[in-house]
Structure formats: C-alpha cells, structure tokens
Amino acid sequence: MDLSNSVAIVTGSGQGLGLAYARELARCGASVVVNDVDEQTADSAVASITAEGGKACAVVGAVGSTETAQRLVDGAVDAFGRLDILVTNAGILRDKVVWKMTDEDFDQVLDVHMRGTFTCVRAAATRMREQGEGGRIICVGSPAGQRGNFGQTNYSGAKAGIVGMVRTWAMELARASITVNAVVPVAATAMTETVPFLKPYVDAMHNDEPLPGFARRELGFGPPEDAAGIVAFLAGEEASGVTGQAVGVGGDRLALWSHPEMTATAYHDGGWSPDAIATEWPHTFAERLELVGEQLPEEASTS
Predict the structure, then answer these.
(1) How far is it, in rounded angstroms, from Cα 53 to Cα 201?
(2) N or C: which end of the chain has fewer CB within 10 A?
(3) Rounded CA separation 180/198 (Å)
(4) Out of 21, 155, 201, 267, which one is annotated catalytic?
(5) H/E/C letters for each residue in the chain?
(6) Phi/psi at 128 (nearest 5 deg)?
(7) Which residue range or ranges hold the Ketoreductase domain (predicted)?
C-alpha cells in the first residue's frame, strides 16, 4: 500500500488503536498528524513513528469542539501542506446502567464520540473539497453501536450514530470523490481490558502468550495492530470505489456489516389496528425478532 504524498489526521492516536492506525499509515508513506489530550503521550507517539522512519507531528487537544477540529486541519496543512485522510478514532467511556447514568456521563461521551466525529469530518471535508482532489474519511464505530451493550447507553448510541452519519456523508461527498467508511474494530485496548469474557485473552497477550484460534477467529480479537491494515486499505487508491460501508476487523477476522433492512413484512388494507397486529404478529413477526447485544460463541477449543 503506497500512501506517499498523502497527509492523514488520526484523532485519539496517542496510544491503543489510534496509535496503531497512525503507525500503519506512516509505514505506508503518509505524513501523520497525531492527536491526544495529553502532550507527553502525543509526543511519545510522534517519536515512535519518526523512529521507524515515518513523518509525524502532534496537535494536542480534546476533540468535540469546532475549534479543535479546525486546529487539527490547520496543523496538517501547516506541517505538510494538505490533507487527504481523516481517521476519527478519539473516544472515552463512562459506563453505567441507564438508571444510574448522569447527564454528564451521557454528554461527555456524546461530545467526544459523536460531536467530535461530526466537527472533525466537517472541517476535513471542507478542506478536501477546497483541494478538489478527493479524500478518504474513516470513522471508527464499535460492535456496541451495531448491537447494543449492557451499561453503554451513551457509547452504543454514539457509535450507532456515527455509522448513520457515515452513510449520509458517503452520499453527500461522493461528487467530490471523497469516500466515507466506518471501521468496527475489536482489539485489546484500555476499553476492552475490563470485559470479563475477554480477560483471559488480554492476560495472555500481556504475558506474550499466543492467542488461541478461537479468540482470533471466532471472536475476531487480537492486538490493536491487527485492526490497522483495514484503515490503510480504505485510505488507499485500491478502495476508491468503497464508500458508505461498515467494515469489522480484529484478530484474523475481516467482515462486512450489513445495513439495516426490513426482515419481515405484512400488509393490511386500510392500515393496522392493534387487534389486526395482534392477529398477524405470531404468524409473520414473532419468529423474526432480532437479538440484542453481542452473541458470543462458546469456546469449543483453545487450539
């Protein structure tokens, strides 16, 4: 993958998945703007990229505001002359069940994930359209946004909203040759280390032990680096015809998420009364109800 002469912004790229994305883009030749809320973390990430022969600079700040989004775009242009790729990865967690979630818990997560994605994409799309040479926008979703997750009203809602915005932006920016896609990663990060089901696999990686095939294939789980290749692919020329998609990645698994579709349909002349629905429901809809949450497979083997 050759991304030479391309310039990328990766939000929340001081560590974890964001750093993996930034390093992979740099390895493919892109100049990268690293972003983190902590200056030391951002500088360390830049150093790790330049030590490998890549080009990078840092813009410190919390995403969410229009001002931070514009500083990121201006930082890319000032340092490297242009902007070709945006990866919106920055995120936080404030997990609580709905009856315990405060307004602040909700607003903080929505501000970083959803508003931060919106403001950064708006600023980047404006710059890319002005350049007139197309571009690549890659927004980071989550399985929680696709299926929901206990205790994550704010996070699930934001991630679902991001994928909805991606589909809209793919339509709006098509004439400008700007593709917009969502990546739905699963990886060992600070956000997943507390998930009880994944703890044995996280512990194994911390101990430099190989992950079993079940984790890497059935769960699609591995280190952040496993999820970075799809970002570089979507940023490249080979993906010029890919837009409006949600692509799952992690471990040894690469997957395409479907868009929501009507799965069962019935018709009733004159519209549907409650009694008519009650009569029809058991025959047409009852067996087609969707599951909620991740349906994790049982581990059949550790090999």
Answers:
(1) 32
(2) C
(3) 30
(4) 155
(5) CCCCCCEEEECCCCCHHHHHHHHHHHHCCCEEEEEECCHHHHHHHHHHHHHCCCEEEEEECCECEHHHHHHHHHHHHHHHCCCCEEEECCCCCCCECCCCCCHHHHHHHHHHHHHHHHHHHHHHHHHHHHHCCCEEEEEECCHHHHHCCCCEHHHHHHHHHHHHHHHHHHHHCHHHCEEEEEEEECCCCCCCCCCHHHHHHHHHHHCCCCCCHHHHHHCCCCCHHHHCHHHHHHHCHHHCCCCCCEEEEECCEEEEECCCCCCCCCCCCCCCCHHHHHHHHHHHCHHHCCCCCCCCCCCCCCC
(6) -65, -40
(7) 6-194
Tokens in use for 248? 């799952």
* Amino acid in the structure at residue 291: L
| Domain at 7-257, CATH from 3.30.465.10, 3.40.50.1000, 3.40.50.720, 3.30.2310.20 | 3.40.50.720
What tokens were used for 131? 């350049």
Q: Is 155 one of the annotated active-site residues of the chain?
A: yes
Q: Cβ distance 48 to 20 under 8 Å? A: no
Per-residue pLDDT tens, the chain, 303 aa: give them.
899 999 999 999 999 999 999 999 999 999 999 999 999 999 999 999 999 999 999 999 999 999 999 999 999 999 999 999 999 999 999 999 999 999 999 999 999 999 999 999 999 999 999 999 999 999 999 999 999 999 999 999 999 999 999 999 999 999 999 999 999 999 887 667 667 777 788 888 888 888 888 889 988 888 999 999 999 999 999 999 999 999 999 999 999 999 999 999 999 999 999 999 999 999 999 999 998 988 777 764 443
**Cα–Cα dist 136/82, whole Å:** 13
